Amino acid sequence: MKITVMTGGEKFLSLDIDSEESVENLKALLEVETQVPLQQQQLLYNGKEIRNAEKLSAVGVSDGDLVMMVSNAPSPASRAPAAQVGFNPDGSAVNPSAFQQQLRSDSNLMAQLFQSDPELAQAILGNDLNKLQDLLRARNRHKAELRRQQEEEMALLYADPFDVEAQRKIEAAIRQKGIEENWAAALEYNPEAFARVVMLYVDMEVNGIPLKAFVDSGAQSTIISKSCAERCGLLRLLDTRYKGIAHGVGTSEILGRIHVAPIKIGSTFYPCSFVVLDSPNMEFLFGLDMLRKHQCMIDLKENVLRVGGGEIAVPFLAEKDIPSQLFDEERHAKEASSSGAQATSATKENISTPTGGPTGTTGRNTSQGPDFEAKVAKLVELGFGREQVIQALKFFDGNEEQAAGFLFGG
Predict the structure, then answer these.
(1) Any idea which architecture 2-133 has in CATH?
(2) Per residue in 240-254, pLDDT tens?
(3) How is the chain split into domains, by residue range?
(4) Is the Cβ–Cβ distance between 73 and 13 less than 8 Å?
(5) How many CB atoms lie under 10 A from the CB of residue 202?
C-alpha cells in the first residue's frame, strides 16, 4: 500500500510499505529517507502516537493515509532559557522560533494540540512564524474576553440583591444566555432557518404574454402593474371608475380594474380579473381572489401549484430560473399585497356607482337584523374581512349574491 508521511517543515514523503509491517520497520525506512535516527522519531496517526511493536494494519493505517513524523532530537533552541520562550503581554512568543522548536520536541503535547486546536498545531509544524504569532495573539484575546465575562458574572453574583441596577444586569445576562443557547440549538437542529427563502413563482401567460407570476396567498386581490398591463395589451380595458388609494404597509394608487382577461396556466386558459396599481416595482401578483376562484392548491411537498382542484399542476420556479430583478421586487410585492388587502374597500369608498349597477343604493340604511348578520357570517367564512363584507352588503342593499360577486371581483 502507499502512505504519505509528513515530516518537519511540512515536507511529505510517499512510501510503499506492506500493511502488515511493524511501526518500527516504518521508522527504519524513514531513518534512511530523513537521516533522523529511529530512536528520535515519533509517529502520529489521527493525532495519536503509534508504538513500535504495533502493526500498521492494527492501528488502522490503510492505503492513501497520512502519517506524521515528529522528531524529538534535542536542539539548541529547545534548550533555550525559560525567559527566551516566554510570552509578550499581547500573547505572542518572545522567541517564536524557540517556542516552536520546544513544542515540536514534545510529542505528547503535539498530539493533544492536534485534538484540541488543530489550527495551532499546523502552525507550529509549519514554517510561517508570523502566522504562528498571529494565532497566539488571537488565542490570548479570546482568553482575555472570557476572563472579562467571568469577572462580570462574578461581580453580578456578589452584587447587592436590593440593587435595582444589578438585578437588571443579571436579568439581561440570563436573557442573553438563553438567546445564545437558542441560537446554538437552531444552528444544530434547524440550520435551514438561516437560509434565504425563495418566494413562489410560476410561469403564466397573461393575454398571450409570458410572465413570471408571484403566487401570494396573503394578497387579497390579484394585482398587475400599469406597465405590465400595457405590455400585455390590457390597458385599453382599464375601468377607471374603480380608482382609489390602497393602504397597507405602504400606499399605492389604484388606477382602476380590468374585469376579465385570459390567463394561461400550464396548457389551460382561465378568466382572471386584476386590480391595476401604479407600482412600477411590482409586475404581476397572483392573489387569493383568483386562487380561490380557480380552486388552487399550493403543494409544497411536490413543489407545484395545482389549479382546478388538482387537474393542472405547474411547478414552482427554482431560484436559478427567477430573474434577479424579481428578488428586489419581493419587498415591493409584499407592500402591494398588503395594499391589495385593502384595495376592494378603498375602491368602494372612492368610486361612483358603475353604469348598470344598482343605482340609488349608496347611503341606504340596510336593516342589520338576524338575516343581515347571517349573510355577513356566510361571506366572512369565505375569507373576507367583516367590515368589507358589511360595506359590500350595504352597497348592494343586502343582496348576498351581488355582494359576493363584487367581493370576488367577478
Answers:
(1) Roll (3.10)
(2) 888 887 665 566 788
(3) 2-133, 135-194, 201-348, 358-407
(4) no
(5) 19
94-125 pLDDT, tens per residue? 888 888 888 888 777 777 777 777 888 888 88
Neighbours of 81 (CB within 10 A): 9
Q: What angle do CA 133, 137, 138 make, to 5 degrees?
A: 115
Residue among 216, 289, 299, 371 flagged as catalytic = 216
321 has catalytic annotation: no
Interacting residues of 174 by C-beta distance below 8 A, sequence separation 6+: none
Q: Are 293 and 273 in contact (CB under 8 A)?
A: no
User: CATH code for 201-348?
Assistant: 2.40.70.10
**Given the C-alpha cell 413562489, which residue does it identify?**
200
What's the CATH code, domain 358-407? 1.10.8
Question: Cell for 321?
Answer: 430560473
Name the grid cell of 391: 360595506
pLDDT averaged per 10 residues in sequence order, the chain, 410 residues: 74 81 83 79 80 84 81 54 65 85 79 79 85 87 82 71 78 85 84 80 92 88 90 91 71 86 91 86 86 92 89 89 68 48 40 36 45 80 78 77 69
Q: Which three cell numbers stand for residue 299?
A: 403543494
Instruction: State the pTM of this model.
Output: 0.44
